[in-house]
Design goal:
The chain is mainly alpha-helical. It contains 5 helices and no strands. The chain crosses the membrane at residues 33-54, 74-105, 125-142. This is EamA-like transporter family protein.
């Protein structure tokens, strides 16, 4: 099961690269914020349809959840605007490696401190090496 989830996350990451490549030209034509809006508008419709047909009817109410859990709704559009603006200027590869570096750095801290209710996973030398290699990739792509 873990292997399948790893493959799914790799496929999801590939999808994000495609999204970054699409958003740049779209933002150049209609504006960065309109491009971002289109992604979330279409995503909202698709998610609603999935919820309508596949969501359990006995799920706890969305409105009873703590407010901090809705922060992703604020962070998502910021991320997409960054993709839309950065990808055409610095390239999709550089954009995605930069995003990856930021994600891994923050993820190490979230795991280490067990933030947001996640299990504690201490930062160790291997995890630090992984971050260093990602930063090296960022430098190598920047020089290329």
């Amino acid at each position: 099961m873990q292997f399948v989830l790893i493959l799914l996350t790799i496929a999801g990451g590939m999808g994000l690269s495609v999204e970054a490549g699409i958003l740049g030209p779209l933002g150049g034509e209609v504006g960065d914020l309109w491009a971002t809006f289109s992604i979330f508008g279409i995503g909202t419709i698709l998610t609603f349809l999935l919820m309508l047909f596949f969501s359990p009817r006995s799920a706890p109410s969305y409105f009873t959840q703590p407010g901090w859990t809705l922060l992703g709704g604020v962070l998502g559009p910021i991320y997409v605007v960054v993709l839309t603006v950065a990808a055409p200027i610095i390239g999709v590869a550089m954009t995605m490696i930069g995003v990856l570096a930021g994600q891994v750095f923050k993820s190490l801290l979230i795991d280490h401190y067990g933030l947001f209710g996640t299990p504690h996973r201490k930062i160790n030398v291997r995890r630090v090496y992984a971050l260093v290699f990602i930063l090296a990739a960022l430098l190598l792509v920047a020089k290329g």
